[in-house]
Write a structure and sequence with these properties.
Radius of gyration: 22 Å
Number of helices: 3
Distance between the termini: 32 Å
Largest sheet: 6 strands, mixed
Helix content: under 10%
Strand content: 25-35%
Number of domains: 2
Shape: globular
Structural class: mainly beta
Length: 558
């Protein structure tokens, strides 16, 4: 049965308390007595006068829990409550509180060559810790990338670091990042947001108000001896308003000492503060990352932001094909990535006939014109990519049939089924015109390929591994009544992902079990209920045949 993942609130693994501790969660927003919100589900058929969701209640104190407004000026709230390493069993007296991981989403989980033993004394017996990277995105308030560790295969997480924050607390020299600013990142009042506020020290051309930070984190581990710590590259999407998904930002997480972007010691998994000059916070915030990458501030710095070359309108790197452990440095590494052309099906050279464009989604009333395609590409250096081509079989960017897949999410998990590259399995998430959203959050599916290019889907929208609530509606293609999914999903739908689920990322428990972490919404959008969205969840899947050891690893972790 799928469960909500929780995060240990305040435990300081890694840099921990020196990095601000576990960030704000919706638990604290919901605790404010002024805040009440819920979304009720109406009965079909859904029309403009009878939408699927009706919101009740309000959330007037939108910044509650993020900042404290009891003083003369708002101040950021920190949730450090424990020692550097938690020693008290979760759920027992004296333990740090544990809260649902919301508003976290778009997870990436993987095993690490650097962290091989639990940081706690109560991890699952014999379990190797896993690392998780998560988008953290309180609606219209802030955005960042959070790193955490799990000792029980993804059910419970321990905070490690927050980096690349959009609205940091610049009055805190530890967590604020580079630059001279008195901004705390707080809205001016507890009833306010940062929805129309430009983040300080970031070029306004990026449209950098709240919800427009960096996300969709992916990591590539380059092959070759000695690269276990020094060959990792972090990829992030710039979600700035109006940006037509150009290239991805790239940060070498731990370059070799003496290299152009080198550091003296690889600090796992992300942060690096070797520089003692101005700007020593490196990538704690987006502004510090950008400022430290050029000009005087870059002198002696250990981290620089680069951009990819060769990817086509990338929305994110979806999955990494692992190479052999013996592969030499410079061996080409293959990846799947998702191209997204914003408003592409009704504008410019990519415009489609009207019959191949989505009409208004029956329950949300949204119309989406984005085009998404899954590509195969290779790289030898993590920066420059060579296009192989658009893969076949995963989706059809022209379909308006609610029984088929139009959009694919840029997060998946690859399985080397036989351990020799002869057969690949892919867990992915996808959707169609029924959702009116190219984020592709309707179902989690599964496909296989023997050549990386041509895929056969075995679990589609009508026979999914997991799905949002079943919907009966008239199909845009032909007008007949359809129920989606036609067959019950393998994983029973739960209220906390009944309206959105996506970004499946899995690690191996044993030869026949995978721990899958994914993101879910209990409502269609945060606007339906600000207290019930962007939840991380976990489920254990049993595979039909034994898998080789170390499959999957998600980042090519040799």
């Amino acid at each position: 049965m799928p469960v909500k993942s929780i995060i240990n609130q305040g435990t300081a693994i890694g840099q921990g308390s020196g990095n601000g501790a576990t960030p704000f969660t919706l638990t604290y927003l919901a605790a404010d007595p002024n805040n009440s919100s819920a979304a009720t589900v109406n009965s079909p058929p859904y029309t403009a006068s009878n939408p699927q969701y009706t919101s009740v209640g309000t959330v007037p104190d939108t910044a509650a829990g993020f900042c404290n407004y009891s003083g003369s000026t708002p101040a950021r709230v920190s949730y450090v409550t424990g020692a550097k390493f938690e020693t008290t069993m979760p759920g027992t007296s004296g333990a740090d509180p544990e809260v649902p991981m919301a508003p976290f989403y778009f997870p990436l989980t993987y095993n690490s060559a650097v962290t091989t033993a639990p940081n706690t004394s109560f991890g699952t017996s014999g379990a190797t810790p896993i690392i998780g990277l998560f988008d953290w995105r309180p609606k219209d308030i802030d955005e960042a990338l959070v790193a955490a560790e799990s000792d029980d295969n993804g059910k419970t997480w321990f905070f490690m670091q927050t980096v690349l924050e959009l609205f940091p607390d610049y009055t805190n020299p530890i967590s604020g990042g580079y630059g001279n600013s008195t901004s705390t990142g707080c809205p001016s009042a507890v009833t306010g947001t940062n929805a129309s506020t430009n983040a300080p020290l970031i070029p306004t051309a990026n449209g950098n108000n709240a919800d427009n930070g960096w996300g969709h984190a992916a990591v590539i581990q380059l092959p070759g001896a000695g690269n276990a710590k020094t060959g990792q590259y972090l990829y992030m999407l710039d979600r700035g308003a109006g940006i037509d998904v150009n290239q991805l930002f790239v940060i070498n997480l731990a370059s070799p000492a003496g290299s152009a972007y080198g550091g003296s010691s690889p600090k796992f998994p992300i942060w690096n503060t070797n520089n003692t000059a101005a700007g020593a916070n490196d990538i704690k915030s987006i502004s510090s990352a950008l400022s430290n990458s050029s000009g005087a501030a870059a002198a002696g710095n250990t981290v620089a932001v680069q951009t990819t070359n060769g990817l086509l309108h990338p929305d994110g790197i979806m999955a990494v094909f692992p190479t052999a452990a013996s592969a030499a440095a410079g061996t080409p590494l293959s990846v799947l990535y998702v191209e997204k052309i914003l408003s592409g099906d009704n504008t410019g050279s990519t415009a489609l006939p009207a019959a191949e464009q989505c009409s208004k989604a029956p329950f949300s009333g949204k119309t989406n014109h984005d085009i998404s395609k899954v590509h195969l590409a290779t790289t030898t250096d993590g920066i420059n990519f060579t296009e192989v081509g658009i893969v076949n079989g995963l989706n059809d960017p022209t379909t308006v049939d609610y029984n088929k897949t139009r959009w694919i999410s840029p997060r998946g998990t690859l399985i080397d089924i036989n351990g020799d590259g002869s057969r690949w399995g892919l867990y992915f998430s996808a959707g169609n015109c029924l959702d009116g959203d190219s984020d592709a959050f309707h179902y989690i599916g599964y496909a296989e390929s023997s050549d990386k290019m041509n895929w056969t889907v075995y679990n589609d929208i009508n026979s999914p591994i997991a799905s949002v609530n079943a919907i009966t509606v008239n199909n845009q293609a032909g007008g007949a009544s359809v129920t989606i999914p036609a067959n019950a999903p393998i994983v029973p739908t739960q209220p906390w992902f009944a309206q959105r689920l996506y970004a499946p990322t899995a690690v191996q428990i044993d030869s026949t079990h995978l721990s899958m972490t994914f993101a879910g919404y209990g409502v269609q959008t945060p606007g339906n209920d600000l207290l019930n969205y962007r939840q991380i969840g976990n489920v254990v899947l049993k595979v039909s045949a034994p898998l080789p050891a170390g499959v999957p690893n998600n980042i090519n972790a040799h």
